Amino acid sequence: MTPDGIDVPRHLETPDRAEASDHLEILDRTDPEGSIARAVKTYSNWGRWGENDVLGTLNLLDEAKRREAAGLVRRGVSFSLSQRFDMNGPQKGWRRRTNPVHTMLDTGTDAALGNQGFPHGIGGADDVIAMPLQCSTQWDGLGHIFDHGKAWNGRPAEQVVTSDGDLVTGVEHMAPHVTGRGVLLDVGRVIGEEGELPDGFAITEEYLTATAEAHGVSVGRGDMVLVRTGQLARVRRDGWGDYAGGPAPGLSFTSAGWLHRTEIAAIATDTWGFEVRPNEFEHAFQPLHQVAIPHIGLLIGEMWDLEALAEDCAADGVYEFSLTAAPLPITGAVGSPVNPIAVK
After folding, report:
1. Under 8 Å CB-to-CB from 192, ≥6 apart: which residues?
2. Which fold would CATH assign to domain 10-89+132-343?
3. Cα separations (Å) of 317 from 216, 217, 307, 320?
């Protein structure tokens, strides 16, 4: 059982603190403020790429890494890693997040009735969609999370994101860069039972490393890492429930050191919040976000559909691939929908 009262199989229990490595010492479950401060002091990338940087860890995804990714395509099979954007999504209205509303502006009925006013029999259909940019498969931009009023690279949050949007680090800056080597870490399959981790299970560095070793794959500079927990498969089977905002397996706060030290460019999961929920402190909300986005400068993806890709990786034993996951270049946005494409 975890300290939060979550029942997990014995072989899934996080090692006792006395047996754990030193990086766990940044976590004091009674002191999220102090634990976050210690992690920030140790893992901050502020100034690493200059005071005017707007890309964060995407700076690590360079031309050489993209050439490497191109060489990973062997079979030419491709996978969309996006959930569908429709009214049947997981959102329940938290902080005004809703599922997409899709409305037709012109239809085949309009064309058949001759209501469109076009010449020589031509007709057409048109539509519009209204949705929060983070209602389904998406990236968190660098302007999404602040730490004590500071945005990425130490900028004052009020000078970065205003009612006009993200004036400095909007996701449009990232749009040309998010293509390179992808790596799947199917923690649910390696560590879990029947391919799934239970809600509330914290994925530590040890589990990430063990999964990579089991897959025979490396993780390093400029990679985009996809972590499958199996939660999406479970909610598709049992219903959305509290998928959007409720308990979930996810990255442990103690994985901050691994996220920083491996120099990955981006990470995405099949869960709503990327990190374990309930969080590992007695009173906290998304503390790993508070370190990873404004301090490490890490691009974080959530609610990715990794199921078909994971099945293929398990079948052929290859857990690396070319991955393209460009955000929509929405000027000033702090997040973006994405349809990631993995090619093997």
Report:
1. 12, 198, 201, 229, 230
2. Glucose Oxidase; domain 1 (3.50.30)
3. 8, 10, 15, 9
Strand stretches in 115-215, DSSP E = 126-130, 138-140, 161-162, 165-166, 179-186, 202-203
Question: What percent of the chain stands above pLDDT 70?
Answer: 92
pLDDT digits (tens, 9 = 90+) for 71-120: 999 999 999 999 999 999 999 988 899 999 999 999 999 999 999 999 99
CB 191, CB 211: distance < 8 Å: yes
- Residue 329, preceding peptide bond in cis (omega within 30° of 0): no
- Among candidates 300, 310, 320, 288, which has minimal Cα distance to 230? 310
Q: So where are the chain's domains?
A: 10-89+132-343
Q: How confident is the model at residue 121 (pLDDT cuts 50, 70, 90)?
A: very high
Structure tokens at 243: 């998928």
CA distance 218 to 68: 13
The CA distance from 280 to 287, in Å, is: 9
Report the half-sphere exposure of 327 (CA within 13 A, side-chain side). 30
Length of the chain: 344
Label the pairing between strands 320-324 and 341-343.
Answer: antiparallel
The Cα–Cα gap between 256 and 275 comes to 11
pLDDT above 80: residue 233: yes
Of 255, 288, 271, 181, nearest in space to 225 by CA: 181
DSSP assignments along 307-330, one per residue = HHHHHHHHHH---EEEEE-PPP--
Asked whether the beta carbons of 302 and 271 are under 8 A apart, the reply is yes
pLDDT of 222 > 60? The answer is yes
Q: Which residue has the higher pLDDT, 199 or 21?
A: 199
